[in-house]
Amino acid sequence: MKKGILFFLALACTMLHAATAVGKICNILDYGAKPDNSTDSSAALLAAFDSCVKPNLPNNPTLLVPIGTFLLSKNVLFKGDGWTFTLKGNIVIAFDPALVGSLIHFFYVSNFEFNGHGTIDGQGRLWSVNGKPMFHMTVLGNNTQVYNIRIHGEDHGATDGIDIGGWHNHVHHVHVTNRDECVTVASPSSNILIENVFCDNAGATNIGSLGKGGGTAFIQNIVMRNNVYYQTEWAVGIKAYPCANGIVRNITWENLIMDQVVYPVYIDMFWQNCDKGVANGNLKIRGITINNVTGTSATRRPGMNFKCIPNSPCEKIAVTNSKIWRDDGTAGYDQCENALGTGSCLGTKATMTTMMFSPMSSPLPKHTIPKSGWPRTDPLGL
User: Fold this and answer.
1) What subcellular compartments does it reside in (predicted)?
2) Nearest 5 degrees, angle CA 42-CA 45-CA 48?
């Protein structure tokens, strides 16, 4: 069965925000688009770009999708520097099993901005019973910002909200509901800040997975802070194959609230089995700071679980002011395997250790679940 796609936005670029004043407006209605949710708009999008946007680059012309509902039945790819894509209306992705790949693809663009109060409807409810959905948004680039976005996916695996990789990127004020990653960091990445994110019945703000097939990972200087995780499968973690190589260092998880999370905080270097014949790797994970991370677990699994490989223990993990209880308020526990550091169950020896802690003396303060009205600029009730 061919893979279906909810919505996949790929950017390989140095992008966001266009600094120049607004230039020429290129309205797709002037190039044959019809807001009737039945006429394919791909040709109009490409014609508006080729005939109107390109001649005005790099003076910040705007490709405008106005108010209305526009069907997209074919893949579209845009390449160029110094322009804006404004979505005021609604784009509906046609349900067609032959429609695969990147649906709306911005390729090697710089000084680029995607904005607007419109929506993109990937019709995930149809794909979830007819095929395999894929990621919503992928951002591969440098010096980017992603913010004020609401993503709602089906209760289905492989429906990542935002996958991001590159240098000097910032994701903030994002609300994701799906059944896989909320926001995930891919290799290679350096200097990424993920904050004020609400993962609502979703996955997690993860790093990885890393090293499939013995690949080499490079992840450093990642900060995840001021986020809320409500009834999610995971919250924050690092996922790696035992055959992974490379380095993950200088990771900060700070000021995080977790409510009924299955796997709240974890490092798992045995995420999945490696391909047959691929030797164990030597991935180095070091310099993990965990501060003011509190909440509840929906299960009797460890609140914090550090599962590292014997030949390459995780090092320099520091846990302060952090504790995950069970949702009923009873005693929780953390578990460490080949993990070195201070706080929690961490120590100076690469062994298996468990730390139990007492039940809650009083209920934890509940976070405020964001109401309707996205996009928003307030910090999600934190």
Assistant:
1) Secreted
2) 145
